[in-house]
Amino acid sequence: MKNLPTKVVHISALDIGGAASAAIRLHKALLSLGVDSHFLTLGKANRNIPNKHVYEHTVEPISLIKVLKKSIKVKLGLASPHDFYHQQQSLLGNESKGIGFSFPDTLDDITKSQIYQEADLIHLHWVAGWLDYPSFFSKNHHLFHNKPIVWTLHDLNPLSGGLHYAWGTSITEAQMGQEIPTPSNSLQYTHNRNLKIKIQSLQNTERLKVVSPSHWLQKQSAESLLFSRYENHCIHNGLDVQVFKPYPSEWARTILGLENRKTLLFVADDIDNVYKGFHILSEALNLIETKTDFQYLVLGRDKKNVLSNVSKIKYLGFVQDELLMALVYNAADIFVLPSLADNFPNTMIESICCGTPVIAFPTGGIPEAIQHRENGIICEKADAQLLANELLKFYGEEYIFDRQKIAHASAKKYDSVEQAKRYSEIYHSF
After folding, report:
1. Whose CA, among 28, 100, 163, 392, lies 20 to 30 Å from 128?
2. Can you name the CATH fold of 8-238+416-428?
3. Which fold has domain 249-414?
4. Phi, psi of 72 (to 5 degrees)
5. 88-107 residue pLDDT tens
6. pTM assigned to the model
7. φ, ψ dihedrals at 295, nearest 5°
8. Are the beta carbons of 426 and 152 closer than 8 angstroms?
């Protein structure tokens, strides 16, 4: 084994949200192991990140010569009069972008950051819309002596032509990492265009290893045009098992101002995000309203006031504090995760590490962590009636779960320090 790189820099566009939380937890766990780990981000919301560096956009000076060149190109029809990002979006026309679309060419140059230049190893995380593939991989190869790169995928965007998930679009999941032979709309044409940019950008990159938090995503990556030639690993997300652990449920409910009765929990960064499935949960709750006496506990941002359609809700807003989150999971009897597109949600492992069973659809990597009747319930498919039926069974105690057993088994699997050790082995292997 080679010596561990002396300075590792994690690069994450965001500093809050699911992907950011996974990256921050790994970063902190590596620090606890003595690794000189740093965190480079665009985000300024989360102050609880040691060795954090905020990337500052650099504005290129505009000269009269550049303005004249641009004007001539526009008049000759060689350039668009609109700005760079407007041009990108216009490539998509009016096609549905599902739950997100990001381009591989941006105006940012991460390699100009001092902390990047000081790094011995680069660890990419969720960098959609920030990482400029052409300049980043070219400069890393030519100017910075080919720094080794580990890339943790948090969705399908890094290997696709722009989509983050295929759900709700004219591109299938199987096509995400492939070139579409006969594109028939703007989305598919743009997908092919972007995939070619990515492939060309990485053509000289050899020192790259890809990590996926689920076997589902690992398979997608290993079969993709972009990442099939690299090592593909699977390391599940981790967390601090000294925080996410069982606490007395009645005590947790008292602290949160809840009644001491059966409690159903839903958590999402944005409750109105369609792929998080709250609309399906809401429909299921309407079906069981007269047959159960659940109290509903909901966390997340409710920008469109979707909670106004559901009664009996205790709404705690958007919560970042991990100890408070652990109390929330412990206050609940069951956590509902009706995601329609997802990878390996942090909320899922947070819940089971607290001993709270999860009811979910068989989406992405979710069935890898939730075993039916052992630590939760997997519905046959995403359907409000099926979800309602399973919630009725749970309410009627047809399912009995051992919370301490769930928490003990989960703590062994998802301890962030153990995950950090596995990442360290990959760092060593370059």
Report:
1. 28
2. Rossmann fold (3.40.50)
3. Rossmann fold (3.40.50)
4. -65, -45
5. 888 888 777 777 899 999 99
6. 0.92
7. -105, 140
8. no
